[in-house]
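[step 3/7] fold_predict: job queued, chain A
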Amino acid sequence: MAGDLAGAKEFYEAGAAAGSVDCRVNLASVCLDSGDEGAAEQLYREALADAFHLDAAQNLAGVLQARGGYESTREASLLLRDVVRADDTRWDAWANLGSALADAGAPKLDAIKCFQRGITRAEAVERDPDTPAELVEGIRRSLGEVYYGLGACLADLNGDQRFEAYGDGEVLLTARDENVNLYDGSQEDADAAVAETAANALRAALELKGGDFPLAQHALDALATREGAAAPDRASPAFVRALFDDFAPTFDDQLQNVLQYKAPELIAAKCAERGPYAAAFDAGCGTGLLGPPLRNHVKRLVGADLSQNMVDRARELGCYDALVVGDLLDAALYDEAFDLVAAADVLCYFGDLAAILERWHGALAPGGDCVFSCERAPGDTWVLGASGRYAHAVDYVRAAASNAGFSVVSAEDIVPRVENGNDVPGTLYVLSKS
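[step 4/7] structure written:
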């Protein structure tokens, strides 16, 4: 294989030197296959400098999307818009544009339409009897992710957006429940039609992945709760691991620049008021956003997360004394006594808090603190929202904390992040172990 790449590189270098733009683009692809992303990006940009080139634009967009981050993703979306304007038959460009728009926080209906166009064009290629079997197989492997993107965006629409989608003949392309009256224009029918379309897309994603797709399964679980099904007590570890292993490269940029994530600094400020601490446990540490602001108030800092990729990123910060990978309910993670357990944006993946609060109570020395954020729900219990995140009523958290043996020191209203341009209501809790 290395020899083949070397030979191809030599051939395309000669062609590029002679002025062939196609050879320059092919040389960029060889560099990318060889692991030289920087050279590939430069060559794609050079190919685009004088005139628009479809393959250079689409391939450069792929490099930028893989890199992640708001600016790279936004540039990728602009390139892909130009690609589909020039050739609207490119199903993968439509699908990637949908993904880029969703990741960049663009209107979800725009992303949904792109996913739909990608799916309809891909399936047309599949049905063509002249399409080679290996290409059909490759399309089917890719379509699982596209259907998931479609279903997740549909499931995340608010009421007004669902009503708008309901009236748009391009959005609701998949089969609907025959019991839904599609013609009376009510909000109830809009909600039902969009939910059914989202569920169909997510089921298709699961089927195309052979049933092994934790992200799609969790999104289906969240949808089912709208119809009265009981929500699972927590997000499955497989879902959380898959979500954050994929999310790790762009996590910090997405949370800080798109979601305006404030939970780490709010928790660190509260710990500064009550500290210093001898030993702290950062539960669900992720990429380590809580680590640096907490470090000044603790002598020893241990972080834990389900995702190896997230822990690898946290390790690069150099502010943790130890990092471990594992489920927060696993007693083996807590092999020393702590006087602080801190958790930023972690309990949105737990519904029933009894087990996790009992685990944290057991990990703390007498007099220790547990400081964490929750998304706030009305009423007196917990709910699994359409976003796939759990929210908790203040009265429920107070009762769960008391049952676990904690005293509730404070429960303050906060805004930990924004979503779709709206503040997400949250609560910052301080619990103490007597």
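[step 5/7] annotate
DSSP finds 18 helices and nine strands in the chain.
The chain has a mean pLDDT of 89.
exit 0
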